[in-house]
């Protein structure tokens, strides 16, 4: 039986929700390889290049205030004598004071790229700036750790499309916006009828889509069932990120086998009138994280949760003519958990006296951070996944 182009596109649309290779059929025949009680990692991506200097502020640095005479943050919340944090991140200040927040300053990589797309690819694939990979660091974690997993849901992204970070060679994460909507779509009679009558096809691409459609139908049920098994009583903000964190919290409190969750917020591409835009995004982040942490604490889960943030690059030191900032290089990363071994500021603030054509010079390689998280938090073989052999940090 020939498949019509219209039907092909319909199948493609639903199948893209999971973006899984047909290898899932083999992997689903084994028991789960990951223990549901293991530690969980939540990655929050600041899309668009967040301005790190207006996030963690050098409150005693004259160069900062001189180069940013119109956009410098004047009312930061003091962390120590030299450092403040943006006032829109007031809950992050509380986490800092309680020893539940670590900040890694000046994170980047050699020969930085200022293109949003290329730099994001570098961060998500954990590649060198002159290296092009079609797999992501979390995807390779799945390849290494989940080849015998029962359900291909060890990593989930709350989004419509799957990011490069979660694509492996043989295993890929599962992307969705809402468990209920994904389930409802997967249960439509049309899709179920197509799958029931077309388990295989002579054309390799069409066969792949049938297999992926079957995986989507099977695992949409699994994800939805877990998402509603433990309802959260915590009051989350009625924002996109608030809803995303509420979904993650419900899944974490269930017995789903997911170990890595991936979220994003943006855009932080603040070339014009930066402070207003950044403040609005920070307020959304602040409220969502506060509810999520409170939820995890009430359920005794916070010690086994690590929330990590990153952005593809920072901004230039000097403001531009539009009260904004242009694409820069190094930036900071936040780490939030009840299980941190080293708290607060993990290293020095950026050196504003030593710049590269107006840009910060990185001192910490993001791949070292990834290696630390993989090895010390997820108990994975970071050398196989990243090929990184240049040491690790001790904050977890």
How would you describe what is shown here?
With 396 residues, this protein is an alpha/beta fold. 36% of the residues lie in helices and 14% in strands. The chain is built from 13 helices and twelve strands. Helix 8 crosses helix 9 and helix 10 (240-252) packs parallel to helix 11. The longest helix has 25 residues, at 274-298. It is globular and about 55 Å long. It starts with a helix and ends in a 10-residue tail after the last helix.
With helices defined by DSSP (H or I, 4 residues minimum), what is the helix count?
A: 13
Q: Report on the biggest sheet.
A: 9 strands, mixed
The counted number of beta strands is: 12
Radius of gyration: 22 Å
Note the overall shape: globular
Helix content range = 25-40%
Would you identify the regions where 5 or more consecutive residues have pLDDT less than 50?
1-6, 8-36, 188-192, 203-213
CA distance, first residue to last residue: 56 Å
The whole-number mean of residue pLDDT values reads: 85
Q: Specify the structural class.
A: alpha/beta
């Amino acid at each position: 039986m020939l498949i019509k182009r219209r039907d092909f596109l319909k199948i493609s649309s639903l199948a893209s929700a999971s973006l899984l290779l047909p290898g899932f059929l083999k992997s689903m025949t084994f028991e789960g390889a990951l223990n549901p009680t293991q530690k969980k990692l939540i990655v929050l991506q600041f899309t668009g290049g967040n301005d790190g200097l207006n996030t963690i502020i050098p409150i005693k640095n004259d160069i900062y205030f001189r180069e940013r005479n119109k956009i410098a943050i004047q009312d930061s919340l003091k962390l120590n004598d030299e450092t403040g944090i943006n006032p829109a991140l007031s809950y992050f200040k509380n986490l800092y004071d309680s020893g539940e927040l670590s900040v890694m300053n000046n994170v980047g990589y050699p020969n930085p790229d200022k293109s949003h797309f290329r730099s994001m690819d570098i961060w998500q694939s954990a590649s060198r700036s002159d290296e092009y990979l079609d797999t992501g660091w979390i995807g390779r974690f799945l390849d290494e750790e989940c080849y015998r997993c029962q359900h291909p849901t060890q990593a989930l992204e709350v989004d419509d499309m799957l990011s490069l970070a979660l694509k492996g060679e043989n295993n890929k994460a599962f992307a969705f916006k809402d468990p209920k909507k994904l389930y409802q779509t997967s249960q439509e009679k049309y899709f179920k009828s197509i799958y029931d009558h077309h388990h295989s096809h002579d054309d390799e691409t069409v066969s792949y889509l049938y297999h992926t459609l079957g995986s989507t139908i099977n695992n949409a049920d699994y994800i939805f069932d877990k998402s509603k098994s433990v309802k959260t009583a915590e009051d989350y903000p009625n924002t996109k990120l608030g809803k995303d964190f509420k979904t993650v919290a419900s899944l974490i409190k269930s017995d789903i086998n997911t170990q890595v969750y991936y979220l994003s917020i943006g855009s932080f591409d603040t070339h014009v009138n930066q402070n207003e835009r950044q403040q609005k995004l920070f307020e959304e982040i602040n409220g969502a994280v506060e509810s999520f942490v409170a939820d995890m604490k009430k359920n005794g889960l916070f010690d086994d949760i690590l929330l990590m943030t990153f952005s593809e690059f920072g901004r230039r030191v000097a403001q531009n003519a539009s009260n904004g900032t242009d694409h820069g290089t190094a930036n900071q990363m936040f780490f939030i958990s009840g299980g941190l071994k080293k708290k607060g500021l993990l290293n020095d603030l950026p050196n504003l006296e030593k710049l590269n054509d107006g840009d910060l010079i990185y001192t910490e390689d993001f791949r070292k951070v990834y290696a630390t998280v993989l090895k010390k938090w997820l108990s994975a073989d970071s050398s196989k996944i990243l090929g990184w052999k240049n040491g690790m940090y001790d904050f977890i």
